[in-house]
């Protein structure tokens, strides 16, 4: 299928046919994929009905520079192509469709004397696969049942006729335990072994009636031959099957192969549940959470998820039940909305799963919020604060023997990092390694600026250090006339003691307390942020000093090179022409000679 490119000015030239459209931005990056019964009407609606769009859609439309279309025969074909393009390219304005490649399968191998084993790798040439199983426990129960009912081998030997005839293999412990009949030594014929494999395949397909009949007949044959111990074994296996069948979710013997899809959604999320029914039993249930990117309708999301999940779970059934009316114009399958009977009950069961997933999602979000509030309330109690510390700022210094002294400030809001409010500081007024003076400078600069810009002050200030650093920070607040307005504490590393201004005795908070862990998290984050900045600065200065030692290369040239190439490795990898364009031919040659000598040294 050939793609045709249009500009946004040519939308009226688009054909009135079904197809897929793709939007590209100024960098020619794919930002959205959509399908339409009429490309002309659908694409035009984005540009002609801008007042009806959400802010996200308006933003997307503002980024569109060109439109690419592909014509197809039907809307269903467009849906299939749209699904593939979204999964391949993951455009930023489309919902995210993930391939669950880690779900396990049960494989019946293509070997002579086939094995049945679990795997997460789908390699069709190796055998026949059943799954994927969304519940590993359920898969293991099926495998355990098969191993209990049938004497199938678990070894990986190549049981060719030639190898068995040569006596290459010996029976293992499984043979002596009665779990295998020893085909590796020719003690079981291939014909007899394949009978067990056929019955195991019936179980994997969900046809439990055939294995039941098989064991019942064998039990009756053994009893007729007065082999009562053998008859008892078959009876126990029959009971195992009955027990497994009773634990399976039986829907209705009248319903054979059916797929059920339901969706519930709100402004931010959609939850799509998929139930697969085979031979009147539910053998798979999966709920997907979709984060909406634009103002997608339930019908659009559901139709896309139907195609995606049926492909992912290899469903070929034609009957699909759902809670939304969707007309795909497909001969492969047609979704219907049942009104009464067993089919309606199935839709209600699937809908119950979707609603449960939605409830769990918002409960988890509320739990995170509640936990944050709980920790802050505990901190307020432990520190005897007047207000809940919803906004906390923490300061730390970093220097090595006074070189490149820097400081950091990290900000937590509602008990969580607010990284956009983090700040780095280069120490400007302090000469030498003086942590106290550096702390005074940084705290003073921070809150002088907040006061000038009329920004809100924090509800708590945390200083990484003991009495000395805390006292220095208090001096800065006094100079600004806000000392006493903001609670301020220091945390000493050795014993994790909390110091208050003008209080000679530290506060010891329980080491297991959530409030102490929050203060430690603030302190550690400030320390990490300061150390990272210090290392970057030291590395940059080291590089500047090293390159400035080259004859004819001064600070001005170094700054120009850094501005263009950013790092030393990029300067070293740059061509002579690229260096000449920045520094001139003579300096470029000297720089390349410098790096060459450095390699040889």
Walk me through the structure.
The UvrABC repair system catalyzes the recognition and processing of DNA lesions. UvrC both incises the 5' and 3' sides of the lesion. The N-terminal half is responsible for the 3' incision and the C-terminal half is responsible for the 5' incision. Pfam families: GIY-YIG, UvrC_RNaseH, UvrC_RNaseH_dom. InterPro entries: GIY-YIG_endonuc, GIY-YIG_endonuc_sf, GIY-YIG_UvrC_Cho, RuvA_2-like, UVR_dom_sf, UvrABC_protein_C, UvrC, UvrC_RNase_H_dom. With 601 residues, the protein is α+β, with helices and mostly antiparallel strands. The protein folds into 5 domains: 5-89, GIY-YIG endonuclease; 133-246, no CATH class; 258-359, Nucleotidyltransferase, domain 5 (2-Layer Sandwich); 391-540, UvrC, RNAse H endonuclease domain (Nucleotidyltransferase, domain 5, 2-Layer Sandwich); 543-600, 5' to 3' exonuclease, C-terminal subdomain (DNA polymerase, domain 1), CATH 1.10.150. Helix content is 46%, strand content 19%. The chain contains 18 helices and 20 strands. It has helices at residues 39-48, 55-63, 75-89, 136-149, 161-165, 173-176, 190-205, 209-224, 228-247, 298-312, 341-383, 435-452, 467-480, 514-548, 555-565, 568-573, 576-583, 585-600, and strands spanning 4-7, 19-24, 30-36, 66-71, 105-109, 116-119, 127-130, 249-250, 258-265, 269-278, 281-291, 319-322, 334-336, 391-400, 403-413, 416-417, 423-426, 460-464, 488-492, 497-499. Strands 14, 15, 16, 17, 18, 19 and 20 form a 7-stranded mixed sheet that branches. Strands 8-11-10-9-12-13 form a 6-stranded mixed sheet, with helices on both faces. It has a 4-stranded antiparallel sheet with strand order 1-4-2-3. Helix 7 (190-205) packs across helix 8. It is extended, with a radius of gyration of 35 Å. The chain starts with a strand and ends with a helix. 29% of the residues are buried. The mean pLDDT is 80.
């Amino acid at each position: 299928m050939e793609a045709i490119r249009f500009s946004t000015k040519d939308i009226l030239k688009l054909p009135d046919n079904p197809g897929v459209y793709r939007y590209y931005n100024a960098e020619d990056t794919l930002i959205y994929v959509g399908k339409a019964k009429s490309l002309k009407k659908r694409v035009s609606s984005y540009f002609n009905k801008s007042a009806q769009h959400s802010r996200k859609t308006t933003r997307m439309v503002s980024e569109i520079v060109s439109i690419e279309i592909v014509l197809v025969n039907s809307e269903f074909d467009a849906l299939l192509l749209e699904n593939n393009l979204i999964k391949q390219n993951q455009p930023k304005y489309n919902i995210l469709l993930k391939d669950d490649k880690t779900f396990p399968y049960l494989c019946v191998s293509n070997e002579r004397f086939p094995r049945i084993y679990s795997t997460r790798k789908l390699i069709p040439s190796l055998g026949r696969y059943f799954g994927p199983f969304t519940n590993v426990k359920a898969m293991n129960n099926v495998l355990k049942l098969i191993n209990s009912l049938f004497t199938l081998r678990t070894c990986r030997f190549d049981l060719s006729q030639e190898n068995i005839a040569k006596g290459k293999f010996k029976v293992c412990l499984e043979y002596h335990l009665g779990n295998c009949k020893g085909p590796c030594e020719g003690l079981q014929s291939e014909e007899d072994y394949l009978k067990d494999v056929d019955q195991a395949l019936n179980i994997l397909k969900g046809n439990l009636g055939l294995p039941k009949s098989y064991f019942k007949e064998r039990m009756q044959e053994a009893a007729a031959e007065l082999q009562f111990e053998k008859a008892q074994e078959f009876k126990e296996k029959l009971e195992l099957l009955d027990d497994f069948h009773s634990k399976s979710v039986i829907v209705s013997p009248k319903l054979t192969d059916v797929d059920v899809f339901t969706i519930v959604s709100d402004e931010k999320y959609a939850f799509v549940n998929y139930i697969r029914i085979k031979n009147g039993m539910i053998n798979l249930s999966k709920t997907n959470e979709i984060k909406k990117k634009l103002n997608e309708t339930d019908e659009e999301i559901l139709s896309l998820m139907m195609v995606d999940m049926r492909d992912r779970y290899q469903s070929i059934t034609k009957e699909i039940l759902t809670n939304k009316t969707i007309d795909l114009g497909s001969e492969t399958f047609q979704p219907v909305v049942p009104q009464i009977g067993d089919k309606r009950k199935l839709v209600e069961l699937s809908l119950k799963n979707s609603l449960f997933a939605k409830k769990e999602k918002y409960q988890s979000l509320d739990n995170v919020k509640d936990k944050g509030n709980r920790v802050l309330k505990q901190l307020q109690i432990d520190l005897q604060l007047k207000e809940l510390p919803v906004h906390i700022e923490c300061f730390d210094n970093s220097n090595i023997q006074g070189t490149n002294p820097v400081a950091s400030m990290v900000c937590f809001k509602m008990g969580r990092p607010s990284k956009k409010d983090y700040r780095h500081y280069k120490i400007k007024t302090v000469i030498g390694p003086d942590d106290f003076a550096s702390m005074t400078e940084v705290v003073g600069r921070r809150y002088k600026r907040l006061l000038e810009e009329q920004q809100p002050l924090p509800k708590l200030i945390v200083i990484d250090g003991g009495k000395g650093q805390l006292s220095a920070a208090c001096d800065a607040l006094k100079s600004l006339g806000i000392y006493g307005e903001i609670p301020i504490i220091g945390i000493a590393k050795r014993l994790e003691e909390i110091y208050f201004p003008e209080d000679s005795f530290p506060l010891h908070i329980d080491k297991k307390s959530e409030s102490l862990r929050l203060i430690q998290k603030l302190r550690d984050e400030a320390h990490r942020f300061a150390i990272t900045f210090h290392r970057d600065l030291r590395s940059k200065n080291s590089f500047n000093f090293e390159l400035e030692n080259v004859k004819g290369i001064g600070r001005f040239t170094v700054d120009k090179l850094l501005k263009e190439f950013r790092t030393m490795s990029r300067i070293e990898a740059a061509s002579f022409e690229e260096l000449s364009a920045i520094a001139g031919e003579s300096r470029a040659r000297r720089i390349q000679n410098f790096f060459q000598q450095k390699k040889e040294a």
